[in-house]
């Protein structure tokens, strides 16, 4: 946010946090995991994240193991530090790994946690509210800045305290729209901070979300909205890529929702139309079969595709007059046009400032209108809890622990089962059809946090730049969850990392003093195989960089 307080710089500690400094340590861990995976990963989970313990204090507490193995945490109502009288052997779960229904495994049975608490709240409670949770750089570029080397037109940081406030506003907005734990939404947005806010808001309330990459087609978005059972779609008026506006709502969301119909809805509409016409059973069955062939292997499809199937069936019915065929076509087309709305609400973030966009007042809502109303609710709740605040600035001026208590008065994080679905992300694999992979609040979060230490040697206070999109699992895991959970500042960069030149990503490393860099090998090859690209990169210092990882294929310039 442009109005966010300037975050305090954090100097990373010098000691390595990677537990595997030699092969013997790695082999010992591997053997321990093979011998008892529940205990091995349970030890990790007890240290990496906080768990909700309902018996610790009057209203429970969020607890984790410290370096000495003692359970410590925060009171779930006041946020005050607590040291519950729990033995070091205590575990918040009844079983670390439940393999009684293998190959369907469950981790940390009966334990409660919340991803948003672990990614957002606990760092503010620990006194790190002024730290930068994220740095954002917009796509647009001003070549006149930085002595002619150029710099982004829009660049700002968001403190952990500001992040928590934005997340709370979005969470209240979702609640005011009628959503609750277990409901589902789809997110299709540019790579901007608002996507992080709405994502964390879902985690906070237990709303299951599916992130859809902004580069996918309207058909792909349509399929995933329906397959996910999303009640709400969150999008933006537009985003920037290569200095061009991509009209997210009009290019993707509106066509996805208005131009396509779910296969089962199409068949129901055709069936209803045929019943209203009172046709001979033989003719009705033939037309319905034509429609079924048209929708076969489709999740959603255009209405014209259904009508083509109907048309082919009509051509095969002998003795049917042109006027009768026309009447049938008209009835079915009318039924397809009047199918029910596919979602309750489309929430639109105003990012690109599009002057005129298609608006459906019965469905579309501006995000800022929702979050502005939520802000007033937050302030009212804070005042009832004893905090004399009348505006956002006064709320943010509270000390970290008082600030958390003020937010919790209205929208605390929801304790959720460790296996409660957090989000699902789609992969097509070899079938070409989306298959949703579910990730949960317990094992996923603790596992990703642990890999950040092992694979990246990440330390609290590091700055991490992941070339990814929240619509990719890499973006969800490391740009968002892993970085935020481990108190690493994450870089959110809109647009392409090689625009306006291949030096763009290197300029981010220099300006933001990035310590950890993660990207795909395809991106790296694009830079390494072009001499001009190499020169563009060399124009910037990478001295701050300590770790770089590349994924998807072996790292090689050829």
Residue stretches low in confidence (pLDDT < 50, at least 5 long) are 1-8, 10-15
Number of helical elements: 19
Cα-based radius of gyration, to the nearest Å: 26 Å
Number of strands: 27
Sheet with the most strands, sense and barrel status: 6 strands, mixed
Strand content: 15-25%
pLDDT averaged residue by residue: 94
User: What percent of residues adopt helix (DSSP H or I)?
Assistant: 40-55%
Secondary structure layout plus pairing:
Elements: H1 23-35, H2 37-48, E1 51-53, E2 61-65, E3 71-75, E4 81-82, E5 95-101, E6 104-109, E7 112-113, H3 115-125, E8 132-137, E9 141-142, E10 151-152, E11 155-159, H4 160-176, E12 184-187, H5 193-205, E13 208-211, H6 218-228, E14 232-236, E15 239-241, E16 244-246, H7 248-258, E17 261-262, H8 263-277, H9 281-295, E18 300-301, H10 303-315, H11 322-337, E19 345-349, E20 364-366, H12 367-384, H13 392-397, H14 400-408, E21 416-417, E22 421-427, E23 435-440, H15 443-456, E24 463-466, H16 473-485, E25 489-493, H17 504-512, E26 516-520, H18 521-528, H19 531-538, E27 547-551
Helix pairs in contact: 1-2, 2-15, 3-4, 3-5, 3-16, 4-5, 4-12, 4-14, 6-7, 8-9, 8-11, 9-10, 10-11, 12-14, 15-16
